[in-house]
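From the shared-data thread, chain only:
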Amino acid sequence: MAKRVPLKKRLRRLEVRIQRDPRFQRAVRNGYARYIRFVERTVRWTYLGLDAWGPGGERGPIIFCAWHARLACTPYVGPLTGRHAKVLVSDHADGQIVVELLKAVGVDPILVQTSRSKTGSVRASLEALRAGYTLGITPDGPLGPPERSKPGAVILAGLSGVPIVPLGYAARPALRLPSWDRFVMPLPWGRGVMSAGPPILIGRDALDEASVDAACRRLDAALSAEVARCEAALRR
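Structure, as tokens:
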């Protein structure tokens, strides 16, 4: 007699099969994109520091960075500042969920293959910066640890000579999802604050391991400071 598979394991297999179904993935991506676009239209937003990078400010290429937990509305920074933007998106499932939203707001995704060499995505990113595009990166994505930057954004900034601009946003009301980063999901008809902080410059001669690690910790502090700035503005 065949051994009976425990119910928990059978349910997990069903969950994985559903997650891998292209129709399910497409429905999730479309639903997420529509929801975030609805939220963006109904929330009363306050913007801090974005003017410095908009039509009346600095127009050179830059690298926008935001924590993965604050990813929901930051794709709108490109259109808000009138910039042509490309965003690095992992081939992991949670990265692919945002693809339809990026396309809807005129942002092009650059696919990062998490299980393979990153050479192709680095080359595509550098080419985009040289062409004058703005690049968007979540430095702690796709799977963390949360609020701990990986070296990618720092290395790209050093190789290209392009500054990193830290982004943050906060919204009320909002949900904190039970994900690895406690993803912030804003709710409609509330208030929101989005901010851009001072640029971080990385020298091409500062790409040794110790210097890159120090720059990552500077980026950590800058991103967390922008989130705190937005949260404080909401309390006023």
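The radius of gyration is 19 Å.
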